[in-house]
Amino acid sequence: MHGWRRARLTERTRQTATGRTLRLDVPEWPGHLPGQHVDIRLTADDGYQAVRSYSLAAPAGAGAGSIELGVQATSGGEVSPYLADDLPLGAEVEARGPLGGWFVWTPRESGPLLLVAGGSGIVPLMAMVRARLASASDEPCTLLYSVRSPAEVWYAEELDAAAHRIRVRLLHTRVAPDGSARPAGRIGGPDLRDLPPSAEGRCYVCGPTGFVEHVGELLLTTGYAPGRIRTERFG
């Protein structure tokens, strides 16, 4: 376990109405793998401390000494609304990590890659997408991204630009864009029908608990081996 390091906020990017990505400079950051996360600690003037975990959106090597986090502001939350909108640029917090070794993928792993994200669960999967794009791999890679509406898509422009290298499919659960061939609705078996299981492939699923459990059951029903499915959930 790495100790706490000073982390200075250098950039904040709006992704959705309540979602932000934050870039922080962290001296002597040891690097991390796509899919790992970090603990962030805030200390108030009276000494009160709060610690929360956030996924790392960029793979190691994306910026020496810096990290990128995804923060979804939660109504009534103690930490996320402050980080999302109120922490001033140049202010310091503390970071500990990288953390996690199970929900990790690197380009060294062969075989097709299937990524399934729900809402802000795209953040650690985006680190995998970026690592995949930076590699020379020509293995098939598909991202199924479930969002309530087009306005809730994180990394919209970046995903559009990635479409020449990976397959990106947006699944809208409540409001579908005009002209969409798929009506709004929960992810289901038909969304996986043309993604046949592979003995060498891996699946990574991230999102709210109910979403992850539902997708995990769909994948098993479709024929994906349990040992090839890795999940991370929140909420």
UniProtKB/TrEMBL annotation:
**Cited SUPFAM superfamilies:** Ferredoxin reductase-like, C-terminal NADP-linked domain, Riboflavin synthase domain-like
Q: Which InterPro entries match?
A: Cbr1-like_FAD-bd_dom, FAD-bd_FR_type, Flavoprot_Pyr_Nucl_cyt_Rdtase, FNR_nucleotide-bd, MRET, OxRdtase_FAD/NAD-bd, Riboflavin_synthase-like_b-brl
Keyword entries, A-Z: 2Fe-2S, Iron, Iron-sulfur, Metal-binding
- Superkingdom of the source species: Bacteria
Gene3D superfamilies per record: Nucleotide-binding domain of ferredoxin-NADP reductase (FNR) module, Translation factors
Residue limits of the FAD-binding FR-type domain?
A: 2-105
Determine if Zinc is one of this entry's keywords: no
Q: Which cofactor does it need?
A: FAD
- Keyword check for Membrane, yes or no: no
Protein name as annotated: FAD-binding oxidoreductase
Report the source organism.
Streptomyces omiyaensis
